[in-house]
């Protein structure tokens, strides 16, 4: 059994905390949050205790691993401190909103032997795993065109957008990771255009709510990702990979699959109401994969290199959006 401490008791922290508490291989050691009352509420729900400080958690030799689900601006410091304390680490994305800070944190962790997993949970969605297998097996032959859609049902609060890092970091970073993971290819450039169509305040905080990113990959293939913060029909996410021989697709997922045939019309089940309802199962799977890796003594995946790659793409995409030009990706 692994003793795991949780940093962060907000929305994502609560999701991870509940999944940790439900895993019979895990002893949820304690919860720390800068808001002590929030940590206390979650600890009471999950039957564990709170920690008074980060140092208390990291100095406890009985704690095997930590889950970093606190605010993004704390990730890099907690990552570095936890690695130096000899803890295994599960870290929410991104590593930091600053690429320079993220790179320094990754370099610091590299000086230790701490195992680290970055939570790109959509890798654990069965349809996306099936896409990756089909491409790796050569089913479509050479990858030539990838089409991705990420369309949300409603605009997040403006206060959230102000600190989110923008649509490239907050929404598309998962798809940048999936693009590389599914195809096995690296991007060499990105061009992004976007607009604030839902609320003028989005533009006022330097963000967009509707965008299209076009990436050229190392073999010359093209990937197009369309993203919307607000659509009128639920949450819509899909990926299509077109090759020189055939095509594979992880289609739009409805809440059910029954078609009702009536006079003059056909009624079908609609889309999930939000991104979490569509992806909830992947959070449990990602935490499970982390514990699996620790028990087997192998490196968790996705790792810090994957996290840094996705961050570099998001950083280049943000530059392209702001400056209106194609940006090379190192």
Automatic annotation (TrEMBL):
The keyword Oxidoreductase applies. Keywords: Oxidoreductase. Gene3D superfamilies: Dihydrodipicolinate Reductase, domain 2 (3.30.360.10), NAD(P)-binding Rossmann-like Domain (3.40.50.720). It holds the Pfam family GFO_IDH_MocA_C. InterPro entries: Gfo/Idh/MocA-like_OxRdtase_C (IPR004104), Gfo/Idh/MocA-like_OxRdtase_N (IPR000683), NAD(P)-bd_dom_sf (IPR036291). Residues 132-329 form the Gfo/Idh/MocA-like oxidoreductase C-terminal domain. One of its GO terms (molecular function) is oxidoreductase activity. GO terms for cellular component: cytoplasm. It comes from the Bacteria. Belongs to the Gfo/Idh/MocA family. This is Oxidoreductase. It comes from Acidipropionibacterium acidipropionici. The lineage of its organism: Bacteria, Bacillati, Actinomycetota, Actinomycetes, Propionibacteriales.
